[in-house]
Design goal:
- With about 290 residues, the protein is mainly α.
- The chain has 2 domains: about 5-195, no CATH class; about 210-280, no CATH class.
- It contains 10 helices and 2 strands.
- The protein has a two-stranded antiparallel ribbon.
- The longest helix has about 30 residues, at about 210-245.
- The radius of gyration is 22 Å and the shape is elongated.
- The chain starts with 5 loop residues before the first helix and ends with a helix.
Length: about 290
Amino acid sequence: MTIPTIATIGTPAVLLVLCLFRGLKESRGSTLHAPIVWALFATAGLALDAVVESLSAGSEQGIGLSSLRFAAAAGTFCPLMAVLGAKRPQNRGWQWVVLTLWIVVVWPAAQAVLIPTGLRLELSVVWKLFLVGLVWVGLLNYLPTRNWLAAFFVAGGQLVLLDSYLWRWSLVDRRWVPAIGLGCFLVAATLVWVRQHRKRKKDDPLAWRRFTEFDQHWLDFRDAYGALWALRILARVNQAAEVQDWPMRLGWSGFTLLRMEDISIPSAEQLGKLQTTMATLLRRFV
């Protein structure tokens, strides 16, 4: 296989950075700002790794380069972990938790550099399972959302980047691993951007609902923050609906009436309370 060039590496990296900067602009004022900053951090690490891999092609691969590749791959866990703490007011302090997680994940690489025991980084079975578990956490958080395909690309990119430290199931040439990882993340970012900006079709199955505006706010939140936060918001909304005896409930796909045959619809007062409840709950995120 040919050696990846700087252009081959730089193109997906630059495009991914542009997508992320667009995301920074659109997420201004929300708690998704920090996860996107972490994504830029991870992209910079992967780009650096890819450049070093390209420049060192043909030379002997030592423990230093192996550890650098692992540290860059570990950075891809930071954005998804930042989302798990994306609720005001603890979202700021949570970034120290994310940084601590990254330090914990890369600790074997630091030890391997300080106390060399071989030519490449080797992980224990427990550490390998820990890394796979982190991949699954990110995948499962977005699998039930409309960003499920992007979640698969992110998980696939992480597994490719970590393959040489896990069980070496992939046949990808080591020199192409960083570029392929960046490509997977670029596809994921593109899928998210396209879904967010495409116009709703006239035959949208949600168009018949009486709560279309509330549905859209709910779905946007669910797809952006994932299942963990969505389930908590869903439970809080339905708790308020039950206490105040509203004729509707929030489901995974949006609001529905308790009895579709019931001719009574939510009153203006009930819709106002629903709007207030949603605004109060989502204010800590957006």
